[in-house]
């Protein structure tokens, strides 16, 4: 994708409803949202890989109502409407997204700023999705998303940065490295004002990214890729405890999401930041450090999973494939406080031995969930 995904100008009008939920976005140059006056805006459960990779300078503040005290802009822009009566009834909900950049983008940024200092160029930086609440002094968006009085339905949180999804399709990483190669000369010319004839690789930069086969005379489209990923934290990272991103790659999770779609929409439209437990209703799920261990890992014939229940609770322990399919359910019952051990012999529901490979265990104790990778060999 190019400069931005959602743009309808900065005029004094509102988009009634905008929702970006459970999408997988791979490679995008600049901003996400250039329309700041949405009546309802939801950016949730998205998996963003190499997003906003074009470095910016904090002196760029194109938004209306810009203030020198708030020079830093975010990937998602937000502001009040002229004459708006506070507390605002509008909903702005930016929760449970993962935003990743190839580490080589940060190396490139450092190299450009080192050279730029020598050549007296502007200092570059990368935008976050939204600046965190502890940085409110430097961002308009952080200020208003942290104002529970004036903006009670504006929430941004539970978003993570730079967690590698561990894609099954290695071509995504190849394209990512090519994207870095494309971005460096583009940044030098477009952001730092170097003369194009002084920038290495400018004459051939199209072959690195925008044209995947490197032949500018051939309009080859980008290849389709496999969107399955293997990171256990992201596989339970959404507001519903489902995989982040496009659920079409995880059919069982998609079916659960579709079954509960009305409940999920109500949960988010009420600006509830806690996770929604699809198994027991609207109870929050907090991903925390449940005391648990699995050993040996890797295992060949038997795996032991131990855990501690602090208070009587419903416990559910499930083995999953990397695609999110349930291999076997080991525990699903109410348990008293205490220490427990569960042994698994590496079979599925039918008792057949499962193939060697990587799997996940998903442990839920009451309203808390953890997950981790296990290897059978």
Short characterization:
This protein is α/β, with parallel strands linked by helices. The chain contains five helices and 15 strands. The strands form four sheets. The chain has a four-stranded parallel β-sheet. Strands 2-4-6-8 form a four-stranded parallel β-sheet, covered by helices on one side.
How would you describe what is shown here?
The chain has five helices and 15 strands. Helix content is 16%, strand content 23%. The protein is an alpha/beta fold and 377 residues long. It starts with 16 loop residues before the first strand and ends with a strand. The protein folds into two domains: 282 residues, no CATH class; 92 residues, Immunoglobulin-like (Sandwich). It is globular. The strands form four sheets. A four-stranded parallel beta sheet has the order 1-3-5-7. Strands 2-4-6-8 form a four-stranded parallel beta sheet, with helices on one face.
* Fraction of residues in H or I helices: 10-25%
- Cα(first) to Cα(last) distance is 40 Å
Task: Tell me the quaternary state.
Answer: single chain
- If strands are numbered along the chain, what order do they take across the biggest sheet? 1-3-5-7
- Helix- and strand-based class? alpha/beta
Helix segment tally: 5
Residues in β-strands, percent: 15-25%
- Round the mean pLDDT to the nearest integer and report it: 81
């Amino acid at each position: 994708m190019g400069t931005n995904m959602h743009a309808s100008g900065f005029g004094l009008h509102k988009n009634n409803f905008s929702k970006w939920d459970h999408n997988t976005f791979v490679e995008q140059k600049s901003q996400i949202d250039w329309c700041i006056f949405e009546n309802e805006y939801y950016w949730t459960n998205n998996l963003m890989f190499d997003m906003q990779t074009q470095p910016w300078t904090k002196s760029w503040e194109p938004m209306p109502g810009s203030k020198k005290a708030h020079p830093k802009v975010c990937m998602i822009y937000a502001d009040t409407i002229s004459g708006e009566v506070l507390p605002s009834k509008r909903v702005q909900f930016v929760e449970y997204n993962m935003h990743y950049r190839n580490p080589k983008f940060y190396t490139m940024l450092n190299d450009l700023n080192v050279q730029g200092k020598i050549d007296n160029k502007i200092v570059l930086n990368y935008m976050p999705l939204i600046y965190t609440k502890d940085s409110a002094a430097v961002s308009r968006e952080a200020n208003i998303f942290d104002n529970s009085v004036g903006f009670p339905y504006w929430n941004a949180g539970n978003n993570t940065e730079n967690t590698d999804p561990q894609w099954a399709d290695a071509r995504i990483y190849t394209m990512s490295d090519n994207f870095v190669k494309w971005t460096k000369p583009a940044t030098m010319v477009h952001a730092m004002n170097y003369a194009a004839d002084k920038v290495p690789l400018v004459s051939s930069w199209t072959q690195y990214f925008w044209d995947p086969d490197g032949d500018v005379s051939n309009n080859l489209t980008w290849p389709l890729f496999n969107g399955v990923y293997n990171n256990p934290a992201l596989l339970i990272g959404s507001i519903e405890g489902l995989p982040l991103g496009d659920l079409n790659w995880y059919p069982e999770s998609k079916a659960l999401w579709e079954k509960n779609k009305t409940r999920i929409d109500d949960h988010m439209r009420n600006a509830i930041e806690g996770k929604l437990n699809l198994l027991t209703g609207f109870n929050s799920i907090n991903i925390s450090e449940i005391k648990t261990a699995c050993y040996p890992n890797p295992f060949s014939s038997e795996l032991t999973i131990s855990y501690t229940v602090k208070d009587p609770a419903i416990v559910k322990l499930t083995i999953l494939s990397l695609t999110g399919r349930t291999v076997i359910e080991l525990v699903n019952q109410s348990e008293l406080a205490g220490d427990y051990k569960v042994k698994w012999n590496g079979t599925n529901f039918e008792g057949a031995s499962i193939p060697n490979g990587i799997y996940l265990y998903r442990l839920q104790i009451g309203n808390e969930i953890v997950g981790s990778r296990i290897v059978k060999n």
